[in-house]
Amino acid sequence: MNIDDYLNNLRGELDSKLKDFSLGEQQDASTAEDSVFCPECGTKNPAGANFCCNCGTTLVQDYDEELYDSEEDKTCDCNNVESSDSEAQYGILYTDVQRLANKYGCSTDDVCAILDDFCDKAAEYNMYWEILDASDNPDYFNSDDFWLEHNELISDYFEQSSIEYGMKTPLFIIGGNDVIPIPMVEDVFGTSRTGRIPCDMAYCFQGNFFSDIWEYGDHTITEASVRNTVSRLPLEDGKMETNLEDDLGAYFDLCTEYYEEGIPVERVMMTANASWLPASKTMSEHLPLLHSNDTPNLVKHGMYVSPPVMADNEETNEPLIETLENDKTGMLLFNLHGASNPGMSGFYSDYGKTFDISMLSGTNARVFNTVACFGARYFGYEREDSMLLSAFYNEYFLLYAGSLIPVPMMELNVPEGVEVHEGSGSEHLMPIYCMEQFTGAPMGEAMMRAKLNYFNVFRHMERDDFSMATMMMFSLYGNPMLRMVRNEEVLRRAEEEHVLPTLPQKGVAPVRKKETQCIMLKEGGSSSLLDQVRGLVDDNISAIHKELQKHLYDELGLEPRWLTRIDRFAIPNGDGTYEEGYSYAYEDKSKAFDNMSWVEVDYDGNIKRVFKSK
Question: Which of 50, 100, 241, 447 could cross-link 476 (Cys pair, CB 3.0–4.6 Å)?
């Protein structure tokens, strides 16, 4: 089976599974009444299409058009985003009360009392939540508990309520994956182990947005696409060993302390891997960094650089602990390695552990941002084995941003005349998010604005599939109506340092998707995938084996035993032709942290690109 047949079959299977949601292709020829004509260019589109297949205009017919911004400018001026003490906020608090009660071994009345108290206190500060309980709507769900069923319920609730669509409306999910499922969306870049990205951002749009965008891809993702912003207050899976009041109740009570004035972040403590210093400087050069003046050997550009600290070494830990406990430290920022293995919840430099969960004890910070691989891991882990869960429920953090999966890096292709500092992917998304945080906007809006600005600018310097995957894999955790205190100096420096670069032109360009087909996947008992490759039916791989061995092993230092997966890929060039080849995935398990590499080669075995995980 060739790749085209494979993809057609896959699309057909997906259409069949999603037909109840009107997300797949129509099986019968559409009549004139069933078709949707684009109000912008007049193109005829399939019934149920969200976007025009020709120009990308939104085709949502039941929406109030006055709720949408029709500007074609794809980026947002952070200096125009300003908080207002009198501006009311409205949002949806979404959970499953029955599942929460089962997890905590309490009554549904107990859960409702905690949620109602949170909503009542927030309303005193013009923050109004409407509670949407999945357990009150059983007709939406089957035994599989598919995330699209939850998304349909949310969309229907919008239609029935007075809450408006858009960037100003947050969805606050209470509970982990076993309460409200995390959407598992196709990994369009191909660096996740399962081929799926856990992506709460999918709850920000109507239907299966990230699937539809490839089918009708002649557009960017703009504010007009957004139904709501999203954040989650996560919990570990299964029965809880803690109680409802100490977990949700304590977190909600802490939120009330910052409703009126916002979260003060006078200074930021950043820790970076030594080999990523230029990119780490890109992440933090607009921020008010704080460090100990007594340890110049551990500090560069205001950041702590891979200090060899361990939780049980008080003398070595002292500089970081001093900074963590400083009253001015309101935010922690990390550009370090992360790990997926149980028992390895900390962050790492190239040389070993750099930051441990126990080091959070005593900090005054309330905001935590990280670009580490698995930096926000929580589902499938115990609380003491998750930096995210420990930060929320043991150390009084209110906001957390990070990824649940490996975070890839790639080189930029910068257009002439555009000023961009070093780094890629998450190392550009995170400084934009930090900038948006300091505007004083609600956190849900700040994260969404950062994602849209990042994607619509950097996709022209990275690659659509890479920028899309980076945007999708990072999530916001904590109350999305919370704000940080606005800092004009940070915004001024962000503009000076070109945190959000200006492109020479902002035309609408098709979103290009990398189509992949898995050829070989390493089995658990196999010592080397190359043993399988030698007997592979694909003669082309056998023919280029020697060339691959020379480049991938001799020149890049990637050992044969690290090879875990081989994919065949095709990337549209935009002119009807495709760039085609093979993608090889490697995982070095000799290090404490997850160390992954992906190499794309053409059909002749020539290396086209090399990607690394953080």
Answer: 447
